[in-house]
Model the fold of this input.
Amino acid sequence: MLVLHIGTHKTGTSALQAFLKSNAEVLRAKGVRYVEAGRPGRMAHHMLAWAIRGRRNTDLSIWDGVKTELRDNPASIYVLSTEGFWFEDPARIKEILDYDGEVKIVAYLRRQDQFLQSLYKQAVSSGRKTDFDAWLAEVPHRGDYLSVLDKWSEAFGIGAITVRPYERGGRTIDAVEDFLSVLGIDPHAMPEIKLSHAHNPSPRRELLHFLRAFNQLNLKIDYEKFFFSVIRRNKAYVRSIDLLTYEQRRALLDRYEEGNRALAKRYLREDIPLFSALKPSELPQIWTQDDPEYFQLTVDVLDAVVKCVQGEVEIERKKRQKSKAP
Done:
């Protein structure tokens, strides 16, 4: 059987992929092969998705290694994992794979009010400049899970689709433990596994303001590296859901209510809601300019900016020296 883990973003995918990579040998002994081809030196198979549309100069031939590995390395279960599959044409992926065994499509879904806030924060951390409302207007389809899963169903059959809600009983799940259960493995029966603490954190609202302002400078930097240089200074700089009021979240969920209901009926195959109900709540505490925490955040951001700029200057200096060398 071939398991395609197709995301979505912000559902513990980075931690899961890090786990699969670091425990590949242990999993192989259990009959599960985290396919090595298509992810040279990487945790996930993002390059396979890039190749479909020729992104990042990735050639479609990278899929050849995957097909060879599936054919020449016996295993009970093969696993490919990348959120990039979520955006590609499932029929095209099926054609490229040309795999005649059983295929299972695994998708983790997060309630849209949480998902879209967290996804926007990731976009800003990666260099985006727009505010939340403008960004959301650009990507209204990102919360439409049903239409994407229907395409996968058309290509692989409705029985191939496994939907896993990311929140259950009002709490987020452990994506690693849950995915192992999908594979038929009891994580508690595997004392030799290495649990991964890799994750993809979101900046709290106050830090997001600084990051978006910094993005306006159009510097040629590694935005991810800059972001992590700030948040590692204080764990309080990380927070996922703090952009929208209860009323705004309710309005956002209303957009997707009908699709979520149809999705649950079609793919969960049970008469239960896809997600837990949104409960009235207030925004978490927001630091103001008079708060000492806000002042320290300002200091930390400015320090990271200075070091970032100094680093870029040093890189340019070394480049000039190298070009002048005989």
